[in-house]
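Write out the 3D structure for:
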Amino acid sequence: MKATDMRSMSVEGLRQYILDGRQELMNLRFQQANLVLNGTSRMRELKRDIARAKTIINEKKLSGEAA
């Protein structure tokens, strides 16, 4: 997901996105451990999306949008 799309989301929506992303990342790790995973680039994308969402939450908190 792009940062511009994430910026339009609410803080609660971003937190839910992070939780869903962590769940998907865990599933990908299990697939990798079982040698079933094809295309490991999704793990990297997902980690970066989670970090991007956390950054946007922090920006919103500092600007006062997330009360």
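Residues 3-63 form a domain with the Helix Hairpins fold (CATH 1.10.287.310).
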